[in-house]
Design brief:
Layout (H helix, E strand, L loop, with lengths): L20 H4 L18 H17 L10 H10 L8 H4 L3
């Protein structure tokens, strides 16, 4: 198949579950309408986010249960949807 640029498109290959496990997960009987590959957060990124949350709580003297608020969690769904805000008892054990 030729593209407008004159370059030939690569042959299509069926994805395998080993190469892209997220791409293969699909409910039985459903139709895939788009392909979305989401890379998991690295341990370093998770640690940096948690440190940022702890700094925010300490710097602004916010209650620790702030992380359990609906609004706080909604902000993270926008800013970093791959991150799950930990419960206060799990995140702030000293």
């Amino acid at each position: 198949m030729m593209l407008n640029s004159g370059l030939e498109s690569p042959p299509s290959a069926a994805p395998t579950s080993e190469a892209h496990p997220q791409a293969m997960a699909q409910a039985p009987g459903s139709t895939q309408t788009q392909l979305v590959l989401v890379h998991p957060l690295s341990a370093k990124r998770k640690e940096d986010i948690l440190k940022g949350i702890m700094h925010y709580i300490a710097q602004d003297m916010r209650p620790v249960n702030t992380v359990e608020g609906k609004g706080f969690k909604e902000v993270f769904k926008i800013v970093e949807p791959r991150y799950t805000v930990p419960a206060r008892d799990a995140a702030f054990v000293v």
